[in-house]
């Protein structure tokens, strides 16, 4: 019997260790990687080989920025771009010109303007523009196949394909308009894949941080470059390259770029930023004014000579609302201009400045050796000495990890110490502590959770309380008070709190009525979850009914507050259904039961889009498919959602059948 118990406990311990490793690697390690990238990789001492703190001066950015759109109001006709391109065509002669943009439609209202712009592009022999591959397939497979043949004939690169894998990430391409395709001689992918990379691209990335670059696309057997790879090849005479399952080989330059997973996706080596950019940046309006001055025989704002033998990347970085916001989150900053990210990828390959990622099995081996060391120390030494030695091991590991990053070797930073700490905890746990901590667990659990339903769930599973969770399909509801900030500026803090307390007091029973739980209050906003932990197969319908009843209750409150002389408030509601990670997030001492994932992000964005579309309640297509029998809606088609690679339909709820 003892052997059976021991085996059973051993299986549980192994399962816990694997589960903690999975959580740490996928949800904590990316943050540690980002920290090291920002604070170690971008800080280089003078003896560094490249002596680079900021990006190379061989690459210059020309940005359509705030300064540009102040003078040339956006949106503008495409022929306005001709000033920028003619400057480089007639006066400045860079080695390579990269246009970090995608043109997928024609300006039907201004065809002559398009023609002028495309005629200008046609004159370049060193211009690279962007194309976008898509994961989703063609809507019209026959037309897509015809386009792929033409695209491959013109744009696939001179490469020997020795890849044995026939699995492809992309299934279609965003087509070029025919006049544009006729004008452009070189193109490269501008696709970026968010995710965490350390030996492999994690399939559970949820943070939407861009850490990698895909230099080569193996698209249905044909090899295409990213714009960074195309810039490198064009700058060096378009040599033939060889692509294998493990590397890209450029024999003429002795450059080998190690692959990871999915068509040579590699971690980028980012550089320190200066005023938001890691490479020299010039405003596009200065280029346009320089062209006008040179054309008139006057002194230019920017001398053409500075671009000699340089690679120039033309991009856009204007705040949201203009359609020119190409910013993404990277380890070194939020809202990193996309053109600067592309410049960084070019910089990496131009200087062979790549990171070396340790294979995943090496990271696991290091972790296991450290765990065995901690276990042995605890078995051999007394409490204080074993704790001291274990903590010393953790500190030494952090130092070694930082040193590895300094020398551009990527190693797991936080996961091994987490596993060392877990090993310490498991080694010190004994039966007496487990049997006499039940009351303390209940008290601790009640202090960690807000919802009564969640507390009940914790008490039922008190022996399994810990960090972790599961994947589950739920419905998430966000509700936010419109104009609350401006309203609160005209009221005292006490008046604001009275309105908020009354509002939340009225909303909470409605959410509870439809089997929802309030996950959190965020200022004047509320986030509710349907489907977990209360199991409810009708959670999409209940969430929509809840949202509609909340709107009705707000109307009642408006009448009451009007009589009391209080301001009128409106709310916006966003609802989305999908798969999330649901469970306990936080630390071993303080945790929160919550849901995380793209489903949550989309629900929040739907709520904010109420401001744009002047609506009160928006639901996603996944929620609508589950509730179409109980709601009257207006479809809002082809909405561009930030963070999504394709447009999607959303729905305004006009009425819902409530109980």
The gist of it:
The chain is α/β, with parallel strands linked by helices and 659 residues long. Strand 9 and strand 10 form a beta hairpin. Helix 3 packs across helix 8 (284-295), helix 7 crosses helix 9 (338-350) and helix 10 runs parallel beside helix 12.
What structural class should be given to the helix and strand makeup?
Answer: alpha/beta
- What is the number of domains? 3
For the sheet with most strands, the description reads: 8 strands, mixed
Identify low-pLDDT runs. 45-52, 198-204, 430-435, 442-450
Number of helices: 20
Proportion of strand residues: 15-25%
Terminus-to-terminus distance: 55 Å
Helix content: 40-55%
Q: Name the average pLDDT.
A: 84
Radius of gyration of CA atoms, rounded to a whole number: 29 Å
Instruction: Give the overall shape.
Output: globular
Tally of strands: 28
Using brief descriptors, characterize the structure shown:
659 residues; alpha/beta; Alpha-Beta Plaits; 8-stranded mixed β-sheet; 6-stranded parallel β-sheet; 28 strands; 43% helix
Overview of the structural elements:
By secondary structure, the chain is of the alpha/beta class. The chain folds into three domains: 105 residues; 300 residues, no CATH class; 191 residues, Nucleotide cyclase, GGDEF domain (Alpha-Beta Plaits, 2-Layer Sandwich). The chain contains 20 helices and 28 strands. α1 runs antiparallel to α12. It is globular, with a radius of gyration of 29 Å.
